[in-house]
What we know:
This protein is mostly beta strands. It has three helices and 27 strands. The chain has three domains: about 100 residues, Immunoglobulin-like (Sandwich); about 110 residues, Immunoglobulin-like, CATH 2.60.40.10; about 110 residues, Sandwich (Immunoglobulin-like), CATH 2.60.40.10. Helix content is about 10%, strand content about 50%.
Amino acid sequence: MMKHFLLIIFSFIFTQWVVAQTEKIKFEKLKHDFGTIYKGEKTDITFEFSNVSSEAVQLHNVKASCGCTTPNWSKEPVAPGAKGYVSASYDSHRVGQFNKSITVIYDTSGIIQPVVLTISGNVLDTTEEGNHNHPSKPIVNYNFPQGNLSFEKVTEEIGIIDTDKKHEVIFKLKNMGKETIRVFEEPQADLFFTMVRAFPNYIQPGQEATLMVSMDAAKYDKPGKFSKKVLVKTSDIAGETKELTVSGEFNKVMTAEEKAQAPNIEFDNTEYDAGTVIEGEKVVHKYVFRNTGKSDLVIEYAKGSCGCTVAEPKEKVIPAGGSSEITATFDSQGRFGENKKSISVKSNDPDNEMVTLQLKVKVDKDPFHAGDTGPVEKLK
């Protein structure tokens, strides 16, 4: 009984010791699935790890389970807190499903510990004698060079993005140089961009890669249209920093608490019928409104539907509980018959961002000058 108990205790201690040893390096992920790929396509993946111990870690050896997988790795010791990598390239000329392992052996204080990485996927043949059920991979043109890296595009319009959602933009790039180029994960000055990562982040000469830009619209600057720069730090000797542009429009999505504190615009009336006027007379009407909300109401603009209607707000900012007016002026010169004009009022009221005011007026010709042919006729 005592021997059995001691064996259990020893097994537990040994297991905890092994776990403690293997935790000296921590990989961001241990598996990668390429999914469906095509014969001859490049299949490169970089597994990054961090040295989470208090001493330098040396990768002793990296072995693939077969010759169709070619690994590469950090050759120099990795300092405490620093990052290293293990990259692998699978020979995609072998058609069919694959599942391969890469064993990483590292040396810490003379103790060698293995870590097993795996890659998997399915290679399809799109040649005439191969699989006819799948189209060939489309050709990507990299027409926007920046140093030794050339991009498929350098700008991306993402349209309208709600401020309560996250978004991702993909840029494709290719290493046109003769040296391996690393893409670093660097924090952006604009907090709107939460992460900029390349897959793989070590790009071999002639190799293609994908750059993923992650965004959090909750960290927007202000509602409306935007155009923001993404700065990508690389090891390219022909220019370390690459510049991309993401543009679109923020749609502010308010929480229930924010809505409770928002401004609210209320007009006494939104329609006015001026009746009948004689040509040449001007119609002036004041549309009175109040801010019944709990924060400042901001009038962004008030625009008439045509040049004959001028709309001017008395104030641009109306405090909570305050009131103001928008004066509309209609010039009836040359505007005979029934006239229906509108005035668009835009504000920061989240529930009534755009209010339309209506003005109706009938214009009759001056009866005292009916049939006039003009000043020249009068002089005869």
